[in-house]
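User: Teach me something about this protein's shape.
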Amino acid sequence: MMLFSRVIAAVSLLAAAPALWAADARQDYREQWPLQLSAPQAGAYRLMLGEAQYRSAVSPQLADVQVFNAQGQALPAALLSADQPLAQAAQWQELPWFPLPAQAGGGGDDLQLLTERNTDGSVRRVEARLGRSVGSAAPGGWLVDASALRGAVQSLRLDWQAPSALQARVRVDASDDLRQWQRVADNVPLVDLQHGGRRLQQRRVEIGQEAEYFRIVPVGGDALPVLSAVHAERVAAPQAIDWQWRALAGTAGKPGEFEYTLDGRFPIAQVGIATPDNSVVQWTLLSRDDAAQPWQVRAGPWVAYQLQETGESRQSQTQSLAVPTRDRYWKLTAAQGTTMPAPTLRLGYQPEALVFLSQGEAPFSVAAGSVRAARTDAPVGTVIARLREQKGAQWQPALATAQGTAQTLGGDAAVQPVRDWKRWLLWGLLVLGVLIVGGFAATLLRNNAR
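Assistant: First, the predicted structure itself:
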């Protein structure tokens, strides 16, 4: 019975081994950094990768950068390149507005506006003249002066004094001269209802157009509230991502050839050259990811110069790569086989964003550096698109930032060539189990032979 118990124990250990290996996937990575969240309950976050994560990663696709929760579970994440800009936060600006007098029914276009303007084009005074249309009186609406803005207006937000109840519809016309008007929105609901201590409001009017003036008038004679302020949501330009530069010192090879090694998986997209003295050389830039691979041309040939003039240094413009690359090894070749000192190679990149969805418990962390683990990009872009449809085009995931120094996980062993210890251990346990079972069977046979 003792031998049989040992067999069961060996089989149980064999079955439990995969669960032990999968207990915390972070141990497959070299190191991690704690994340600080700008909004703890945001749900979706964006992490702008820093120099430390690029230097720790080894995957040519940056697949070994992953976000984990406190339980060591990988979170749904996807890498957004620098050419997928993130929207900036909405910018709101208060605008001057003028009440329009009540107009006779049936003729919204019968309204004639006489205005006085300041020297900067803004409206000083509005005088309205009504046509002779017959019918019951209707509220006149408002004239909004957007001449001080530069660029398109995403939407208008109307603030009013709290009415007992409001449910109305308005239309919006746009003009640059107060003479010619173009309708930009129709049947826009304005709602302000209260019941049971709760309040439902709809104050936003979508515009999405550039114009000097906007005219908001009621539809169907609906009663409008007493307006107190108008704010415009400006269409913000895409967020500019600053360029980061790595300055590499080279080693001379053949005449006119200089080689460099990049210390991380940076998405290199631009290149510049600096020399210790005045120079003008026609260069070609090559790269490769492995010393055994052939060199690939990345930029050039182009003429780069440097000129010291009256205490100022003038350099040629940087060159753009046709496709960003994360190669480790770089080489400059000069058209003329010169024996000049190795120039400084400046490689430029724009940091990428790792967008992830929170799951499980905080704190969250980002891990990097592994030859055994690989992130599979989740379709978080679909989630982001749906949220922007609901919250506006300017919405973006909350910001997450890596804090402090790296915390060691699997260490350098996580980036060493893979040795399949799991398979060898499994085979060893199987062989051990067979030997134990065989010994147990042989013992039984000997006992029966007696």
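Now, about its shape. DSSP finds four helices and 32 strands in the chain. Confidence is low (pLDDT under 50) at residues 1-22, 131-138. If you'd like, I can walk through any region in more detail.
User: That's plenty for now, thanks!
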